[in-house]
Amino acid sequence: MSKVIQPDWKSQEYHEKKFNDLLKGKKIKKVEYLSEKLAEEYMFYKRPLQIIFTDGSVMCLQSDDEGNDGGAAWYGYWDGDEQKETIIYTI
Known about the structure:
Blueprint: H1 12-23, E1 28-33, H2 36-41, E2 49-53, E3 58-60, E4 73-79, E5 82-88
């Protein structure tokens, strides 16, 4: 009888692999805020930014893992040799 090995759900490596498998190499088609209609349907008070990929998948920022509302995201990037940062706000 073989033993089933359960993954370590709290492992950084587990999550990095999972999200690399899901997101690596994707191309962004467009970004837009969640519609007022969907925000109301989801019972969100704020409308978060959605990232829509060319394969039809969507990433929507939210305040927590239970989807209790739209949330903001920190974004860091390089502009030439200068490191910059901004916040992607909800509206």
